[in-house]
Amino acid sequence: MELLDIAEKFNVLIYRRKYGNGFRPHFSMRINEVDFHIDSSPGKGFTIITHAHSDHHGLRNLKNLRAIASQETATILSAISDERYRGMIHSIGERLNLKGIRINTYNTGHIDGSTAYFFRDNGILVTGDVKDFSHLPRCDVLITEATYGHPSYVFEDEVERVIEAARLGVELGAYPVGKAQRVARILSENEIGFKASGKIKKICDALGIEHSDGEARIVSPREVSDGYVLSAQRFYRKRIVFSDHIDYRGIVELVDYCNPEYVLFYHGNPTEKLIHEVEEMGVKALTLRDIKIHL
Ligand SMILES: [Zn+2]
After folding, report:
1. Does the pLDDT of residue 84 top 80, yes or no?
2. Ligand 1 centroid vs 178 CA: distance in angstroms?
3. Please, which residues bridge with residue 265 across strands?
């Protein structure tokens, strides 16, 4: 019901594409006959890649001339695939006009290149994953993530512990796309040299992150033997809390900040508690399960 209300009020059809017994990843929107597939596989119309993490499906769009990504997202996708990204590229902050649909772009601070897309004539903001929402605009329909949508996830990044461990030469396990670059920058700023190899080195080089060789080591989480994994996920035995995402409180604050009429959680783990909390704020909350239009 609510999605039909949104369709009428904001001139947008929100739908999912059927595929086999299920759906294509995430969802799609149709605005003035133009289709936008969000963090999904290619299709008729445009595919928006909010950032280069694999669960947002950028690599599926390497050859898609109608893929849309920021310069940094394109650089990362090309670096990890050894193939050139062929889609459309924008800088973050640039205003786009796609077949008459006007879109503003904003940084979400999640990883290098992570971008929120604001369909400003319709009041619809698609954020992708978020670490810092302070640059985002107010909107009517907020379409966002809930990776830490469970109320038990309340955390602060332990940046000092990262620096301390790096100084001691302890292995730092960081996901190669995104988190490893954030660590690399923190170490560089603190004049701590480090070693990195494989994908981590490739992406740091492609993005021009300068560093000196030193005792600290950045490795992927599965390569950690005696060090720490940098993550807010509790299943890592030895970890330093260090996340690319807002925590549970952050999600609630993001909704409050953007002050929408509706929020659609399209990625992650929106719990009943989160839905309830958001609705208490007077915002109608939806998840992908509420999308009943399947094309
Ligand atoms: Zn992500």
Report:
1. yes
2. 8
3. 144, 287
Rounded distance from Cα 129 to ligand 1 centre (Å): 5
* CA 11 / ligand 1 centre spacing (Å): 28
225 pLDDT above the threshold of 80 = yes
pTM greater than 0.85 (yes/no): yes
215 CA distance to ligand 1 centroid (A)? 29
**Dihedral, CA atoms, 121, 124, 126, 131, nearest 10 degrees?**
110
Residue 59 Cα to ligand 1 midpoint, Å, equals: 14
Domains in the chain: ranges and CATH: 2-151+246-290 (3.60.15.10), 159-240 (no CATH)
Query: How far, in Å, is the centroid of ligand 1 from the Cα of 260?
Result: 23
Q: C-alpha distances in angstroms, 219 versus 27, 161, 191, 201, 262? A: 33, 17, 19, 10, 40
